[in-house]
Design brief:
The structure is a single chain. Helices cover 42% and strands 16% of the residues. By secondary structure, the chain is an alpha+beta fold. The strands form five sheets. Strands 1-2 form a two-stranded antiparallel ribbon. A two-stranded antiparallel ribbon has the order 3-4.
């Protein structure tokens, strides 16, 4: 019994080894014939579908027709029907690109919504959370200080201009005063020489000794003229 089973397994393996053709077709080809493939035949191109075989026997020639309207095929194939195009009629969807024979319709969630899953079958609203306002970065502070410095520059210029204006006014006033003093001296000299009465006269004070001499002078005169002055003068 065991011998028969071993013989059967050996025969199956032997048949499989001989039936294997060793063909390695790519993804744009198919093996033909199906039971005992001997060659790689081309498939229908994207945008087309398989209709029927045209070859006889081992000939692999086939007929491929374009996909119908609203259908597409985006790979090399040997399918009898093309795929149905998607329609962006779901809520909160919008069309990115329309369907063609080689590409399906591309849809996306409109602004304010996001895909719920990887295949984007539904769109959910984007959650809005109130977050505390972060402090301004250092670059913002530097920019603010720079802008402040820029705004203070015109004020400094105004102060500097005002100082220069005052200096110029002071110099002009000093020059005018110097010119007036230079011109007024001859005028004052002329007024004093021709109209002295406009100027106050100097008062001369007499010495007190002359007054005393004038007061004592009558006494001496009396002593010189009077017969009895001798006694008076001696008493004095």
């Amino acid at each position: 019994m065991m011998l028969h089973l071993c013989c059967l397994m050996f025969s199956l393996l032997w048949s499989l080894s001989f039936s294997s053709s060793g063909l390695q077709c790519n993804d744009k080809q198919y093996e033909w014939p199906v039971g005992n493939p001997e060659k790689c035949c081309p498939m229908c191109e994207p945008g087309h579908r398989y209709i029927k075989r045209l070859g006889v026997g081992k000939d692999c020639k086939i007929q491929c027709d374009p996909c119908d309207e609203n259908r597409y095929m985006d790979i090399y194939n040997k399918e009898n029907n093309c795929n149905v195009c998607d329609v962006c009629i779901k809520e909160n969807f919008e069309v990115v690109s329309n369907c063609t024979r080689t590409q399906n319709t591309v849809c996306k969630c409109r602004a304010g919504y996001r895909c719920k899953d990887a295949s984007c079958t539904f769109c959910d609203p984007v959650p809005t959370t109130t977050q505390p306002t972060p402090p301004p970065p250092p670059s913002t502070a530097v920019a603010g200080s720079t802008s402040t410095a820029k705004t203070t520059v015109p004020q400094n210029d105004k102060i500097r201009d005002t100082q220069w204006f005052l200096v110029i006014i002071a110099l002009l006033c000093a020059g005018i005063a110097l010119v007036v003093m230079t011109k007024i001296k001859p005028i004052l000299h002329w007024i004093r020489s021709n109209h002295g009465y406009f100027l106050p006269e100097k008062t001369v004070t007499a010495p007190l000794r002359a007054v005393d001499d004038d007061v004592s002078k009558p006494v001496q005169e009396v002593c010189g003229k009077c017969d009895h002055c001798i006694d008076l003068c001696i008493k004095d």
